[in-house]
Specification:
Length: about 110
Amino acid sequence: MIPCPFCNVQIDPNAYFCPNCGKKVREKPVGTAAGDQVKLYLISVLLPPFGLGLTWRYVKSPDQKTKIIGIVSLILTFASLILITWWSVSLINQVNTQVNETMKQYQLM
């Protein structure tokens, strides 16, 4: 048993929250199973900015395998952001070109 750093009640050393005051006494470790990795990578690719919080938990973990998972997720997030930005700019330019061509046609009439 160890004392809670907030209320000094004796708690289980494996506890994540103090049963007396309810405060978090340590971080729950992130999952490294294949399913957890797939979820993290899908969030990184499909919802890039929203996965950064979860990715950061992996990167700051002391475990080397978990850090590598976090770094891969970070790379996927930034690659996805770059791809989405490039695609958006291309789409805007294409729409702008079409609008300008249509406007020229109406001006010639």
